Amino acid sequence: MPAVRTARGSRKPPPEGFEDIEDTLLEFANKMKDAQNESHEGKKRHEMLWPIMQITHQRSRYIYDLYYEREAISKQLYDWLLKNNYADANLIAKWKKQGYEKLCCVRCIQTKETNFNATCICRVPRNQVGDGKDIQCVSCGCRGCASGD
């Protein structure tokens, strides 16, 4: 089946206020390119994705804070940013729920990806881990994102 051709410039332009945050989003894009092009020598397979997951988290948190905390952007711009994948909509949806305010990534709460069908170790409050162990998530490299810390 041939690809569908669209007219050039048919993508809707960003809503009002995008130019105010465009520089910050470009910085995140540059960090993402650097993380993707970074050398993977000497790293374990799952450690290669950690910088990318962290940058995605930071960018999503930035947009979340702009809309929900500071109320600096409009609903129209917020929806446009989510639609164009500038932020992780599923992660932001979890941040709005009690107990998930500091969640690092959605993979950490998916029970199917763990050995014992439980959430990730980074979701356990540090005072319950005991012995002052330094825990780190295998999925994203998080060192603890439980809201009870």
TrEMBL record:
Organism lineage: Eukaryota, Fungi, Dikarya, Ascomycota, Pezizomycotina
Predominant localisation class: nucleus
InterPro entries reported for this sequence: BUD31, BUD31/G10-rel_CS
Keyword annotations from UniProtKB, A to Z: Nucleus
Domain of life: Eukaryota
PROSITE patterns named in the record: G10_1
Protein name, per record: Cell cycle control protein cwf14
Cellular component, GO annotation: spliceosomal complex
